[in-house]
Structure formats: C-alpha cells, structure tokens
Amino acid sequence: MTTVRLPLFPLNTVLFPGLVLPLNVFEERYRAMMRELLKTPEEEPRRFAVVAIRDGYEVAPSAPGMPDPTAEPERGPAAGFGPDPLAAFHQMGCIADAATVRERPGGTFEVLATGTTRVRLLSVDASGPYLTAELEELAEEPGDEAGALAEGVLRAFRQYQKRLAGARERSLATSAELPDDPSVVSYLVAAAMVHDTPTKQRLLQAPDTASRLRDELRLLRGETAIIRNLPSLPAFELTRTPTSLN
Fold first, then answer.
1. What's the whole-number average pLDDT of the chain?
2. pTM beyond 0.90
3. Which of 65, 85, 227, 215 is nearest to 152 (CA)?
4. Structural domains present in the chain
5. Residue 225 has what pLDDT?
6. Region Disordered: what ranges (predicted)?
7. How far apart are alpha carbons 179 and 159 in whole angstroms?
8. pLDDT tens digit sequence for 55-104
C-alpha cells in the first residue's frame, strides 16, 4: 500500500482523474495552503487532495447566524466540518496537481488544477493552518471487457448530448474528438453527465474501469429516455465545470 500525506481541500463536487478544476481561493485556511504550495519548485508537482463533502459546508460561516444570531462563527482548518472531519468527507477522492497558482493583489488566489490519481482517505489532521490527510493511492484496474464497454458508452454519451441539447432548444457541438482509452472515457463521461454528488462519487469509487463504464451505460440510457420525454431541462451546463467559491 502506497500512502502519501497531502494538503486536503474539501469541496461540494467530485474531482476525477484527468479533469480540470478551477478554484477561486479566498478563505484563509486555503490561502495558507496555496502559499505553502507556492514554496514547491515550479518543476515539481504542486499536489493537494480533493474530497467531496458528505456532511458539512464548503465555505465556513463567517458571521453570526441561525439559530443563535449571537453565536460566534467557527474558525480554523476544520470549520464547518463538525468535531470529526474524517466523518464529514467521502472516503475516496482525487489528487490534484496545481498547474497554475496565481496570487491576486488582495491575497486571494486563482488556481487551475488537474485531477491525477484516485486516493482513499485514511486520516485527517486539523492541527495546522489547513487540513492535511494521509491517503492511500489507488491503481486503476481495467476490469473485463473495458474496451467494448467504452465504445458503447461513447455511443450512448453522444446520444445523451444530442437529447440534452435538443431538450434545451440549443445546439451542442458533438464533433470534438473523444478519447478511446477506456479509463479516460469513464472519467470524462462521469464528469460530464448531469448528476448529483452521490452518483458521481459512486462512479469515482467503482472498483475498476469496466464497472464504472457499465454503471455509466445504465445511467446514460436511463437519462436519455427521460430527456426524450421532457419539454425542458433545468439550467445545467453540460460542458462547463463550475468554479468553486473557494
């Protein structure tokens, strides 16, 4: 088992290997994290881990509020995550490599990172200025018939794109080259589908590529059938990754 200790950045989203994550960093705990990452030489990876929040707040309350308007807001690296941060997060996440960490005049940061490797969360340390975690790096196993499943998922995904665009009465380019590596396909489709965090987390946690692709094929067929019978859809953006408030 290969373990590593890295800064931990909890978010209300699931990061997949190969996917780009833009961040607007303004909370002091994460600003401290970015200042530390900037000490890493440019030729070395500036790595941190992203985990999806199961129970807690991405941005800690910064002013008194309900139910007690006089209560002081929480402070510190674990603010918003309860007495046991480990229990507040999903137990599988993804290492992110920050290709760009740009400090603004006011001390906030603009960050552009890319997911690299899945990890399992083993422990969380809240003793420093930001959370750190001990993580187990996870290999991606192909599973049975991953290649054939990837072809089926790509076909279903193109139909899903067409139906989604049609239901929203707008065009969506489908001519872009899509990858043929099964694991890359599985992560790209998982990130691009319009689903809630628990569903995306389930896809991230799939035991192998083939299992993830099978699950995606079921989801895509079901969603396409639903979209076919809907006159309109909520205003989700299929091809854009939301920028976290942090």
1. 85
2. no
3. 215
4. 2-137 (2.30.130.40), 146-229 (1.20.58.1480)
5. 79
6. 60-80
7. 16
8. 866 555 544 554 455 555 567 899 989 889 999 999 999 999 999 999 99
Of 165, 160, 40, nearest to 98 by C-alpha is 40
SS3 state of residue 150: helix
> What does the pLDDT look like over 3-20, one tens digit per residue?
999 999 999 999 999 999
Q: What angle do CA 129, 8, 186 make, to 5 degrees?
A: 165
**pLDDT number for residue 179:** 78
Phi, psi of 135 (to 5 degrees): -130, 145
- C-beta separation of 18 from 108 below 8 A: no
**What is the helix (H) or strand (E) element at residue 20, kind and residue range?**
strand 20-25
Query: What single-letter amino acid sits at 34?
Result: M
Greatest CA separation for the chain: 60
According to the 3-state scheme, what is the secondary structure of 107-138? CCEEEEEEEEEEEEEEEEECCCCCCEEEEEEC
Q: Please give the pLDDT value at position 58.
A: 55
If 0-12 CB within 10 Å is exposed, 13-18 middle and 19+ buried, where does residue 29 land?
buried
Record the tokens describing residue 71, joined without a space: 């209560």
**Helix or strand (DSSP H, E) at 10:** strand 3-11
Confidence check: pLDDT of 144 > 50: yes
Q: What is the distance between the alpha carbons of residues 24 and 172, in angstroms, rounded to a whole number? A: 27
